[in-house]
Design a protein that fits this description.
The protein is mainly β. Strands 24, 25, 26, 28, 29, 31, 33, 35, 37 and 39 form a ten-stranded mixed beta sheet that branches. Strands 13, 14, 16, 17, 19, 21, 22 and 23 form an eight-stranded mixed beta sheet that branches.
């Protein structure tokens, strides 16, 4: 009985203790339930969130949720991250001119050296061009200008560049900046090639001249080729050198003192109308002989010294013959190019090597002050411009074979007193007998049709001139400053075809005149 009572007491205590622990411990929930059976009212079993307007029923908030709104796009993007598919950025392209050259050598061109500035909306950046940015990059370049089409993200821009071939020139040339600071001049040569090619440009600038003493005393050079950018050949540029051949381009306007002095191997040279000045002794002591200086504005009397230089303008040198102080151009017929003697009386030959001599070319005897008398043969049909200008002639007879007397042909012959015109002459050109201050009488032939302007101007001592009725044209000032003379005109009246100013100095006029009665 005591055992039963003891067991009952123990069970009662256990029951009392278990009840007390249920209500007086810290719950430890596993999957929302404590071991005591208590449930966690906040427990949410594992699940996939289902967000409605950014919130799950479990209370979880969607961090990426954007509430419904009107998109406000800035540069194509809304703050919500939405991209405007229709947005196109504003792109502007400009060439950075400081990276563009005036010319490019074809073989050295690198387009990546050229930069463009690209403005995208408000941002600006520099971009080096590349072939990928060019729509029409050529497979090869040719000399000239070419327009590239730049395409940057659909925005296009034209770029025009000039292309040249890089000149090959002789090594050993030295260059200096010219006085105008706009190009270079050749200042020296220490190379070994005897054929020297001068370039038209150096370091991107034109080569404009040959400097003083550049080739002086050089015994290597034989042939020199000048470009058409050369304007001036300076003093002593080639003096005492071994040069035997050089081209003088039309761009050259000045050859200065002694430029080719003592170039003993220099035999021929071609000078052009554009050459304005030749300095003293420029061609002295060379082996040249002259033909025509008429188109040179200023050439000093000592320019050619005793050589009397050939100055040929486009003649075939192989057809030029020198014989007995005459220089001839011989083709189907022969022309006298120049006379280099000092005789005071000259007879024009009728033939040279069996070829008829029928022309006296421009400036053939010009400024030959030794010449006092000339006999022109009956084969001559043309007396060229300035042919006898400023010579010492005292008298001359124009044979019947001569059809035309050229411009300034006898102008400035201050000692000329008598000119005989034979029948056959048809035209007297501009200023042909101008400033023949001692000419006393002019009896023109009945074959003459034209007297050009100023033909007899400043014939100050002219006493009389007979003009036949065959003359159709008399130009302005034909008898200007001939006020002391009498003009005997065969016509009954002055023809309407004559210039109203043919006699501006008001020389006396006698109409209906006859040659026999003057």
């Amino acid at each position: 009985m005591k055992k039963i009572i003891l067991i009952f007491i123990c069970l009662t205590l256990c029951f009392i203790c278990s009840c007390k622990n249920k209500h007086e411990h810290e719950h430890y929930f596993i999957e929302g339930t404590c071991e005591c059976g208590e449930k966690d009212s906040n427990y949410v079993p594992p699940h996939v969130h289902e967000f409605i307007e950014g919130r799950c029923i479990c209370g979880e908030v969607d961090q990426n949720y954007v509430p419904p709104h009107v998109h406000n796009f800035i540069k194509g993007v809304c703050e919500c991250g939405e991209i405007d598919s229709t947005y196109k950025p504003v792109i502007l392209i400009n060439i950075i001119e400081s990276t563009v050259e005036d010319e490019y050598y074809i073989d050295e061109f690198d387009i990546s050296t050229i930069k463009i500035s690209v403005s995208i909306d408000d941002e600006v950046k520099e971009v080096n061009l590349s072939i990928d940015l060019i729509e029409n990059y050529p497979s090869e370049f040719i000399v000239g200008s070419y327009t590239f089409i730049i395409n940057y993200e659909g925005v296009k821009k034209d770029l025009t560049l000039n292309f040249v071939e890089k000149e090959l020139y002789t090594e050993g040339l030295n260059f200096s900046v010219n006085k105008a600071l706009d190009g270079y001049v050749v200042s020296g040569y220490n190379g070994t090639d005897n054929e020297v090619v001068i370039p038209s440009s150096y370091d991107g600038y034109p080569v404009t001249g040959i400097m003083t003493y550049a080739f002086n005393g050089n015994q290597v050079i034989k042939k020199v080729t000048l470009p058409d950018t050369i304007e001036t050949i300076e003093q002593n540029a080639f003096s005492n050198s071994s040069i035997s051949e050089i081209n003088i381009p039309e761009s050259v306007t000045v050859i200065k003192e002694a430029a080719f002095y003592y170039c003993e191997n220099l035999k021929s040279v071609t000078l052009h109308k554009t050459l304005k000045t030749i300095g003293d002794y420029a061609f002295a002591n060379t082996t040249l002989v002259y033909t025509d200086k008429t188109d040179i504005s200023s050439w000093n009397s000592g320019a050619f010294d005793d050589n009397l230089v050939y100055i040929h303008t486009g003649l075939d040198l192989s057809k030029i013959i020198k014989k007995d102080n005459f220089e001839y151009y011989v083709d189907q017929t022969a022309s006298i190019l120049s006379y280099v003697g000092d005789s005071n009386s000259v007879v024009i030959p009728t033939e040279i090597n069996g070829v008829i001599v029928n022309k006296i070319e421009n400036s053939a005897f010009m400024k030959n002050t030794y010449l006092e008398e000339v006999t022109i043969n009956n084969n001559i049909i043309y007396i060229g411009g300035r042919a006898f200008r400023e010579t010492g002639l005292t008298k001359v007879e124009i044979p019947s074979s001569v059809k035309e007397v050229g411009v300034y042909a006898f102008s400035g012959c201050e000692y000329l007193e008598s000119v005989t015109f034979n029948e056959g002459l048809e035209k007297i050109n501009i200023s042909a007998f101008a400033a023949c201050v001692n000419l006393l009488e002019v009896i023109l032939p009945s074959t003459l049709t034209t007297i050009e302007q100023y033909a007899f101007q400043n014939c100050l001592r002219l006493q009389k001139a007979f003009i036949p009725k065959s003359v159709v044209t008399v130009g302005d000032g034909a008898f200007y400053a001939c006020g002391k003379s009498t003009l005997y005109i065969e016509s009954e009246s002055i023809p309407d075809t004559w210039s109203v100013n043919f006699n501006p100095s008001k020389a006396k006029i006698s109409l209906n005149a006859s040659k026999e009665n003057i």
